[in-house]
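Protocol step 4 of 6: record predicted structures for both targets in the notebook before any analysis. Target 1:
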Amino acid sequence: MKKNLLLVALLISGASFGQVISEDFEGLGGALPAGWVSTTVAAGAWETGDDATANAGGYWPVPAHTDFAQANDDVCNCDMSAVYLESPSMDLTGLSGVMLSFEAYEDGGYGQNPYSVELSVNNGGAWNSLFTGSVDAAQWNSESMLLGASADGVNGVKIRFKYDDAGQWASGSAIDNVVVKVPTADDAALAVSLQRYAPFNSNLPLEMLVTNAGINQITSITADWNDGVSHSQQIAVNIAPGASANVSHPDLVTYALAVERSIDVTITLVNGVTDTDPSNNSAASMLHNTVSQIVPKMIVFEEGTGTWCGWCPRGEVAMEYMENTNGAQFIGIAVHNGDPMTLSAYDNGVDLSGYPGSNIDRALLGESVSNANWGSIYNARKDIVVPADISVVSSGSNSSVVLDVSATFYTVFAASNYRLAVVLYEDGVTGTASGYNQANYYSGGGAGVMGGYESLNDPVPAAQMVYNKVGRALLGGYDGQAGSVPAAVTDLMTASYTFNYTVPSSQNRENMHAVALLIDQTNGEIVNAGEIPIPPANIGLVNNETIGMSVFPNPANDILNVSFELEGDAVITITDMQGRVVVSTEYSNLSGAQTIALPVAELLSGNYILSVATEGASYNEVVVIK
């Protein structure tokens, strides 16, 4: 049974504006506040707790959040058909135009049943629908609504929040910071979005979501974005009470150089007068960086799997599909759970509770695994602007692997908070123990075609299984190596760190790849990545100066020139970041200095490894194809 956790966080307005109810559900230890009750048609109940409580059994992790009310069938493992959280009775005598305002988030994975809000004007004797959320919104939305004329001046008004899993344990709900108030005449609430990274000289619109939290129609706002210089503009709008509208600020955000700016946005006037509720008309400061160069965004798919999981063959099929269709910027890693290939630190880090599941760039968590969903996410993320390019060079011999990781930045940071890390994965993993048998619910074809698994037994015997992309080691830890990137970053600066690994006898060096990561410590997301195959044990990487090797131009568009000096035979290869050889040419009886021109116009844009191999040595250089 698929599960999805819905988070609804209701927006607080200032207490001085005719406030009727303000409840934050804090510090109640599971109980509901006085006057709040949970009722149900089937089973289960609303309770209070924080994100750890909600995520104890949840398929979709709630972001870090203090206490809130939650109806979570993933924790209670029960039928929550029509479970209600009912407010205390409210006396609205002498009041009119009372409003409920909130922000809502619904996860886009399995959100079959939207939350809803209902209203009673006779102390719960009868209920009418007030609002229904959208399904699969996959983003935070500001919502506000009038209780309506039926509630004006009434003693005995209640609201309730409904969660209904339709008996399928399909989702969950949570609410926080409930506020019911009499709005002021002219009141605008503000949320703002701006692209985090952009090329310099971009002309970016600053997008504002403006919600009318007052009782008058809003026909104009005066909005100011400020990066140290004020950009104040009056903007014509037409927003009814309780409604929201997307509004673009007329002054575009643009900078001629690679810079870092902190931007504040405020609505100063509504309908030409001062917004009398200033608590909701300013957005938190946003960091915005422009970059001096566009580099490819590598997208890391960390897939949770296990040999015990009968649906997990779908992950192997999705990995192969992505390699074949989106290989240029795709990096896949299989993170095993509960089987002989489990790396506990990695399994604990990804923190999945549904299998197969996946985290993409550690930005999208708990995503479903399928060709279609992964392909859609890849297409949505492949053109994201990133602040740095990542490269990794492998050396060492026998069981010793040395990985020199570099991040070249194309912007500036006054106080960056990044770390470098390496994940090592292995292809071609096999085993003879029963733990290597793969459970297979696709056997027999009843669940549809799945890359040939429909023709295999359940379980698939270990002798027939070969596991690829198995996560084997975390160098620098799951969160990255402290101190690997300095706080002060300048444009074109390169931060480097050397990682070392000793390949155990149970692993095959020649089947291993290194994935270098740049991790943002403020949110845990993978900003960019690079991948390289580990060279065989009998090939030593030596200093390129030994043969006077140079590669130019780098970056290259059409022709890549390789200059070196050696005697004998050599093989020149270009390998992409997935370890696939895209150019390979043999040269015999070389003598002295030469420059060889390699055509690269047909290669996709991105990072590659150019290697000159001869006489048991390999000389490598990271190259960029534009």
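Target 2:
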Amino acid sequence: MIRSLYIQNYALIELLDITFENGFSVITGETGAGKSIMLGALALLLGQRADTKAIRQGAPKCVIEAHFDLSHTPVNSFFQQNGLDYDDECIIRREVYATGKSRAFINDTPVQLSQMKTLGELLIDIHSQHQNLMLDNEGFQLDVLDILAHHDKDLDAYKQLYNSWIDAKKYLQQLKDDAEHNKADEDYVRFQLSQLMDARLQADEQEALEQEEEMLSHAEEIKSALFQSAQMLDGDEQSLLQIIKACRSSLQNIGSVYAPAAELADRLDSSFIELKDIADEIAAKEEEVEFNPQRLEEVTERLNTIYTLEKKHHVDSVAQLLEIQADYEQRLDNITSSDDHISEQTQLCDHYYQELLALAAKITKNRSSAAKLVEQSMEKNLVPLGMPHVRFKVEIEPRKVPDNKGMDSVRFMFSANKNGQLQDIASVASGGEISRVMLSLKAMLAGEVRLSTIIFDEIDTGVSGEIAARMATMMDDMSRGGLGKKANDDYQVISITHLPQIAAKGKVHYKVYKKDNEHETVSYIRRLTSEERVDEIAHMLSGDSISEAALQNAKVLLGLNSKE
């Protein structure tokens, strides 16, 4: 529950630092005094997006900070999942700068706004007047039944199964679309693949063919150059090898009388051997080279086939052509096997659907049981609130197609009159009736959702007198942990009200007011003493001129002895 709230430089609030108690508390004040401003600041702690216009004029930033007691609130898993340190005391802080920047903190650790919003929803339920419109929201009505049905595991399993079914249906449709598209292109794909396969392409053949073509195109020139080189090295007339051989003999002849000559002769001998080997290899190459017009034509034709395919498919290598060929093979395989794939996926969709229907039936059964509890509880709660002939019914109708919440279409049906026809509650209930219905729903759910703090913003709209007093009693009971339960310190209900009957029921009474100075208007809030409560409630009863009768009436409402 919220233990304290600190607000600095937010709208008309310059500085506010207030502590809150457990149990049932009330906040009163004139219209425009700043009650909604305080709620707006609190909403920032619950993840609402910030508006720089809310920053007090001239201030660089606004700060909203709240201290929470988590000892009776099951939020440990949130802290574990988000890697945050858990303690029974939790501080949530929001800072909004005039520059537009915003920062959020949980126990002084910076967090994302979405994390702050998730935690806020686990800690506080703020019921404002516009939330009465939720009565016409089928999602809200289903949530009421699901809370009472206690089937969270079934709902989680259903949602996972539903998502799998939706994904399977999407993939099935994709297979069908692809099959339709591919079958329209089947002749084209077959032709392109046939052309590539007929070419019998090999990954490295292009480079080898280009080299061979170059050689065949210059065969006569190459053969002539090789022949001349071979003749110069080892021909019949005065070849290089003959000269080296004669030189070597001359040096060997003087080797016995001149030692360096023998060494030089050996070196020439080595050179002779290497050059002889070169000459032999050149002669062999010259024999291999042959001008072959037929082979040149074959190579040129093969290269033209490759170049034509590369140009057609906008690539520049055989390797890329082979990739295209593999792609066409895969496309053709998909075309020929698409019916099998579609059949398999259809079976999978049907399997998910049947499982979905079975789980949805279980959820419907649970909701039907919860619906009876809602009907009984709502009639029981609404009768004391001035609806002696009220009838409340939960209609559950099957949907034609499952959605992410199940197979149920839900409507809350209502009649406040003895012989009135049951109709959709949002279309027939008055403002005051809707307020009482929402309060009764909140009272019914308070102990189920384990929310330790509930704030009602003028839930008393459209009611007065004895009905308001009974609504106050219901909120007081909620602060004790639920209707009919013994008092404890685990719950906190705060009501912002204009009605003295409700204000008088509060265990603690806060007043919001504003003051004008020379430059601005500033809002404040403070906790009232017992004497101040009498004056405040008397003021709510009679207006600015507090009469003695109003004071005595206020004491009666507060349960004080009127003679004191």
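Step 5 preliminary note on target 2. The chain has a mean pLDDT of 88. The longest helix spans residues 318-382.
Proceed to step 6 after PI sign-off.
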